[in-house]
Amino acid sequence: MTPDEFFEKLKECLADAMFASEPNEGVKVEKHYVYGLQGLCDLLGCSTATASRIKKSGVIDEAISQTGNTIVIDADLALDLLKVRRVNRNNGGNIIKRRRRK
């Protein structure tokens, strides 16, 4: 097989893989959940007071499902939401920039 034939075959295979009708066929995604404030503490590596403050702030509301006293948190979504919040704050959101004195 020549290199040109190899690359043509490779293009065909990649095109078939990219335009398949169901690309995620056979792929099973498992969710990772934590339960309660103590689970959030363990996930974030913080104190109970800090975990409670983060929960009350509303930053991770999309990841929280609460019925009565039972709290279930989608760990992956919570971490993603906190990363987005951190990136936004690092890009100048909610931070007062001060001039340096010369």
Features:
mainly alpha; 3 strands; 3-stranded antiparallel β-sheet; 102 residues; 12% strand
Describe the structure.
The protein is mainly alpha-helical. It has a domain at 33-90: Arc Repressor Mutant, subunit A (Orthogonal Bundle). Helices cover 50% and strands 12% of the residues. The chain has four helices and three strands. The protein has helices at 3-18, 36-44, 48-57, 75-90; strands spanning 33-35, 64-67, 70-74. It has a three-stranded antiparallel β-sheet with strand order 1-3-2. It is elongated. It starts with a helix and ends in a 12-residue tail after the last helix. The model is unreliable at 94-99 (pLDDT under 50).
Could you give a quick summary of the protein structure above?
The chain is mostly helical and 102 residues long. It has four helices and three strands. The protein has a three-stranded antiparallel sheet with strand order 1-3-2.
Strand and helix layout:
Elements: H1 3-18, E1 33-35, H2 36-44, H3 48-57, E2 64-67, E3 70-74, H4 75-90
Antiparallel strand pairs: 1-3, 2-3
Helix pairs in contact: 2-3
Distance between the termini: 69 Å
Q: What is the beta-strand fraction?
A: 5-15%
Strand arrangement in the largest pleated sheet: 1-3-2
Major sheet summary line: 3 strands, antiparallel
Summarize the amount of helix as a percent range: 40-55%
